[in-house]
Design brief:
Number of strands: 11
Structural class: alpha/beta
Radius of gyration: 18 Å
CATH class of the domain at 3-154 and 186-201: Alpha Beta
Bound molecules: NADP nicotinamide-adenine-dinucleotide phosphate
Strand order of the largest sheet: 2-1-3-4-5
Helix content: 25-40%
CATH superfamily of the domain at 3-154 and 186-201: NAD(P)-binding Rossmann-like Domain
Largest sheet: 5 strands, parallel
Order of helices and strands: EHEHEHEHEEHEEEHEHE
CATH architecture of the domain at 3-154 and 186-201: 3-Layer(aba) Sandwich
Shape: globular
Strand content: 15-25%
Number of helices: 7
């Protein structure tokens, strides 16, 4: 029997890792921006409504330009908050389960220990706030929605910190790297494999999957070249404020008994 997934996001790093896992028993229809622009709520409703037989919808698309979001809040909220709400409404209309990907950046970084799902979010920037509004809208609109908060994704695809460091290391003798933000770098491939392996059981229980050790941005950069640790506040150019600490407690690999 084939498990059919409709996925928003075809070109992003997590989206591509999920697509790489498509197999005989798992059919993923991934929608690119050209097929459905997430700023168009009618197009979203049509895409879900007319998708044929489906077992699950995954939203792996987002406005992820954290710094640029400070000057493009309308677009950030359109893609990260209003689009997920529209996807969730369309899923609810068809009684479909929805997995929506969110971020550790909903937290402020003020907590002393690892963040739990039950901790109150308090985003510091437009990106985090827009993702939080998206989470709330999804859980409000769809009975069968699950929000998975991931952190510091890296993969062989697209733009991510690891790719940037490798590129810089190939051309620059000294890397200037922020050394005062901590979270869990996470392999997009692991998130993709976990979510798809659990897909049939996913329901509305909040859950998150992260891996890797807690480290600062400069730790993964260390083997690449000499580094020059810097404080975030000394970074040149426009940046949104970042939580200094957003490490989340990893979930056990086995789903909770009450999760379907
Ligand atoms: N990257 C991280 O470190 C990180 C950390 C924590 C959480 N997350 C979350 O994890 C999820 C996946 O992130 P990612 O790193 O895989 O993202 P990504 O590589 O930046 O990809 C974002 C995807 O969203 C699509 N998109 C953006 N605006 C769109 C629009 N208006 N209409 C249609 N598609 C649009 C992009 O399409 P185009 O290629 O056409 O632009 C792209 O496919 C997101 O929810 C993100 O918030 C990411």
């Amino acid at each position: 029997m084939t498990f059919r997934v409709l996925q928003f996001g075809a070109t992003g790093q997590l989206a591509r890792e999920m697509l790489a896992l498509a197999s005989d028993g798992l059919e993923i229809t991934a929608l690119s921006r050209a097929e459905v622009d997430l700023t168009d709520a009618d197009a979203i409703a049509r895409a879900v409504g007319e998708a044929g037989d489906l077992d699950l919808v995954i939203n792996a698309a987002a406005y992820t330009a954290v710094d640029k979001a400070e000057s493009e809040p309308d677009l950030a909220y359109a893609v990260n908050a209003r689009a997920p709400a529209a996807i969730a409404r369309a899923c609810q209309a068809r009684r479909l389960p929805l997995v929506h990907i969110s971020t550790d950046m909903v937290f402020s970084g003020a907590k002393a220990g690892a963040y739990l799902e039950t901790d109150a979010p308090a985003p510091l920037h437009v990106y985090g706030a827009s993702k939080l509004v998206g989470e709330m809208a999804v859980l409000e609109a769809c009975d069968r929605a699950l929000v998975a908060r991931v952190s510091w994704l890296f993969s062989a695809y697209g733009q991510n910190f690891l790719q940037m460091m490798l590129k810089l290391a190939a051309t620059q003798p000294v890397l200037k790297v922020v050394d005062d933000q901590r979270a869990r770098p996470t392999a997009s491939a692991d998130v993709a494999a976990f979510l798809l392996s659990q897909a049939p059981r996913l329901a509305r229980a909040p859950a998150a999957r992260r891996n890797g050790a807690c480290c600062t941005w400069s730790t993964p950069a260390r083997p690449a070249a000499m580094r020059w640790p810097r404080r975030s506040s000394s970074w040149p150019g426009p940046t949104g404020p970042r939580p200094p600490w957003s490490r989340c407690r990893p979930r056990p690999s086995r789903p909770r008994p009450d999760a379907r």
